[in-house]
UniProtKB/TrEMBL annotation:
<dbReference type="InterPro" id="IPR016181">
    <property type="entry name" value="Acyl_CoA_acyltransferase"/>
</dbReference>
<dbReference type="InterPro" id="IPR000182">
    <property type="entry name" value="GNAT_dom"/>
</dbReference>
<dbReference type="GO" id="GO:0016747">
    <property type="term" value="F:acyltransferase activity, transferring groups other than amino-acyl groups"/>
</dbReference>
<dbReference type="Pfam" id="PF13673">
    <property type="entry name" value="Acetyltransf_10"/>
</dbReference>
<protein>
    <recommendedName>
        <fullName>N-acetyltransferase domain-containing protein</fullName>
    </recommendedName>
</protein>
<feature type="domain" description="N-acetyltransferase">
    <location>
        <begin position="44"/>
        <end position="107"/>
    </location>
</feature>
């Protein structure tokens, strides 16, 4: 959290990295099947900066990049990644010390493949019926169709922050 006296000004939310991310796999040269040991190792090495919110009063004041950099430097994980659609418009992650790795390209073929089957596989990323995310009152659940449809057309930028020197 970022505070100005007793007023909350901003928040940075760090979460476990998603299990599969093609842009990360390319950056780190990860190939092959995933095992439980690989997932555990990844969780010790990579965290996702999944959300940054600055209070509307302070947006445009130039504090986001410094806030993000300081938040990342206080994290004990060696690598911090983020995906953002805003990376095409505002380079504040680069100003914060992140390196722009790549952007996901959406071909017409991929957009046409946005089907019920891809909805099921996309839902699997966020949890399976074995876990609470994939179950609600004993029923299987999935991400909303609207969320899925939007993700089919998203073109996020992948950024990575090398935090190895700040790891405690």
């Amino acid at each position: 959290m970022l505070w100005l006296k007793e007023e909350p000004v901003g928040i940075a939310v760090f979460t476990s990295a998603p299990l599969s991310l093609a842009m990360r796999n390319r950056f780190f040269g990860m190939k092959g099947k995933w095992s439980r040991v690989r997932f555990q190792a990844m969780n010790r090495q990579i965290v996702m900066l999944s959300r940054v919110v600055i209070h509307p009063t302070y947006r445009g004041a130039g504090i986001a990049a410094t806030f993000i950099r300081k938040s990342c430097e206080s994290c004990s994980i060696p690598w911090i990644e983020t995906l953002t659609q805003m990376g095409h418009i505002n380079p504040f992650f680069e100003k914060a010390g992140f390196v722009r790795v790549s952007s996901k390209s959406n071909s017409n073929k991929k957009q046409r493949a946005c089907t019920k089957n891809s909805l099921r596989s996309h839902t699997a990323i966020y949890g399976t019926p074995k876990h609470s995310v994939g179950k609600q009152h004993g029923k299987k659940t999935s991400i909303l169709e609207e969320t899925h449809r939007k993700s089919c057309f998203a073109n996020p930028v992948y950024y990575i922050f090398d935090n190895r020197k700040n790891k405690t």
